[in-house]
Amino acid sequence: MNTKLSLIICTTLLALVSCKHEPKLTLAADSKHKHQWSYSGETSPEHWIEIEKNSDCDGKQQSPINIININADSIPAKGKLDILYTPTTLISKVENNGHSIQFDFESGDSITYKNETFYLKQIHFHEPSEHKINGVIYPIEMHLVHVSKSGSITVLGILGEEGEESQLFEFFESFLPLENGAVKDIHQKIDLSSLFLEEKHYYSYGGSLTTPPCTEGVNWIVFKEPIILSVEEVLKLRNNMPINNYRNEQPLNDRVVKLNY
């Protein structure tokens, strides 16, 4: 009788212990599933390093930064950056990836920088701008992401200022609105030479991607002179992206920003 009673008690205790621990396993799985970066709340840029454990988001060479013109070393830039954009390059598709509006490109446009060729892969937008110049935040910033055959990355950052209508942005926005997660095939020509980047001064520095995994070792070229687009064009892009889809300013640390002319 005592043996039987002991078995019943043990069985009951084991059942209670199992039931007590089961919710904790479920909560842990749910918590892991929720780990996805965003621009607001518990997954905003301030928390990226907490939820992106294997990223560079806590590195010492992060982007974006506040560029102080008076502190930038001025150097001649002749021959350092060649922009090889043609009027026959094709946009392959546009996507609302939940973080920005992104246009992907087929092979065609490229730049040469630091004696290496980088091919234009995609363009996306941030509103307001991520980079600042002398503390000034611009209404929008366009990132042109280029990748070399070795996997190195160079990003052209172009700030946007409100004014007259831009035919280039009218073309981009002709494919909007686009719901979160939606993709549209395009396969149409675009002439980015209308940006006249060869005529602009630019800042350069070593930084990172401004979205997780915040990979460092990225060549940044931020043009000093902004492009002009209308208020309506800024608003149309904003209405298709998360509100304030920008990363906060990162410390410069020991980096040197150069003003190329």
From TrEMBL:
Stored InterPro entries: Alpha_CA_prokaryot-like, CA_dom, CA_dom_sf, Carbonic_anhydrase_a-class, Carbonic_anhydrase_a-class_CS
UniProt keyword list: Lyase, Metal-binding, Zinc
Catalyzed chemical reaction(s): hydrogencarbonate + H(+) = CO2 + H2O
GO molecular function: carbonate dehydratase activity; zinc ion binding
Domain of life: Bacteria
Statement: the UniProt record of this protein carries the keyword 4Fe-4S: no
Cofactor: Zn(2+)
Family designation: Belongs to the alpha-carbonic anhydrase family.
Protein's name according to its UniProt entry: Carbonic anhydrase
Organism classification: Bacteria, Pseudomonadati, Bacteroidota, Flavobacteriia, Flavobacteriales
